Amino acid sequence: MPSPTAGSIQGLADGSSWPPPARRRRPRRLARRILIGGAVLLLAFAGLSGRLLIWPTQGMPARVDAILTLAGPGNRLPVAVELAREHRASVLVVSQGHLGYGGPCPAPIEGVRIICFDPDPADTRGEAEYLGRLAQRNGWTSIVVVATPEQATRARLLVSRCYPGSVYVLTAPVPQSQVPYQVMYGWGALIKALTLQRAC
User: Fold this and answer.
1) Of 135 and 25, the one with more pLDDT
2) ω before 106 within 30° of 0 (cis)?
3) Cα–Cα distance between 88 and 81 in angstroms, integer?
4) Contacts with 43 (C-beta within 8 Å, 6 or more apart), sequence order
5) pTM of the predicted model as reported, rounded to 2 decimal places
């Protein structure tokens, strides 16, 4: 840093400070910009998390060819069973996950064919692959997937890669205490589906 000039030294003797105030304000302005940029990124992340993992797009028509419920936490199976009892589809497909993690195969429902399976691999991609093969054999043109909110966007993406028909999604709630963990897990799984699991 250059040394003060004679005039500056005189200024110091007069009670003025070195360096000049404009130079001292620069670090403060930089810190303020960093804080504002961080706040904007945090708000964008929160908004995107809400849109994709907490309140995802969902809905279905009056009837579809099949209902698929994915294995995992939350009240997925009761939601799927209720749809079947309302005859929103003639087939209910239940993923039991790895070693029945998705719960027991439901009791018979009049007028509804129930198919329970263990996906291989035991994840959403394995469920999507099984559904794709099953839909092709049965000529299904529309399905609804029952998932939890943090899985809905990813499930729609993976199922659409294995199944060319119309894919709808309905969500089942999870306990509020599990939402933070599920959102963080959902981000990791969604990034994996977008980067590493690009094929059916």
Assistant:
1) 135
2) no
3) 10
4) none
5) 0.77
